[in-house]
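Not sure how to ask, but would you mind making up any protein sequence you like and the tokens describing how it folds?
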Amino acid sequence: MKAIQVKSLDVSLDHTLVLGGIDAAFSAGRWTSIVGPNGAGKSTLLKTLAGLLPFAGKVLLQDKPLHDWPLKQRARQVAWLGQSVGGGVTSVAAVDNLTAYDIVMLGRLPHLAWLALPSGKDHQIAEQSMRATHAWGWRARTLRELSGGECQRVLLARLLAVDADVLLMDEPLATLDPPHQADWISLVRELLAQGKTVITVLHEISIALQADEMLVMKKGRVLHQGACSSMETHQALQTVFEQRISIHQWMGQSIARLEP
């Protein structure tokens, strides 16, 4: 079963074609990592899947055209975490006087009626989400009081609080230190065990290779899509990075090594 399918997708920004002729399918209940060099169109593709950019072609969410979903219903199905800027605070979360808890509660908005107050269940989900990202301890602090990594963990908690079936994450590890990157991988595994679909843009190739499937992009097009464990995927990775990386096996996992 496919959670999201893309057919003949074109996306233009400022009258420039950024994505051209994209065909891809993202399996439900699995983790797909999107990788490629800078300027490949990875973030643009993720934003398009989230319904944040105009496009030509087809984007199907659970076999239904994305634009046919009522906005609020779509917001319950697909949760998006954008790239961090300004020390870890994304543009949608950069409100100085909001506490970390306030930010996480924003993830519950798609589930609330107009002008309705959050229920006990909403508060419970917010707390669970913050505990899952180890952010509960600074729930009363404002974002400006947090480090970049701490902000990122708050924003991850907000993503979880949506309780969506599909989670889209653009460079979620950018401001996280190695221990919290390991925590993030464990969190993704827990989400998959719950039947969630996870789609990520990652620059950390060795971590991206821990996904179930990989989409390799170059210059606004899909070069390859396949299992992370397959030799064809490894070859596509090496090709798209101009043989500057090599893929090796270590303790049963594929890792990427930089080549001179």
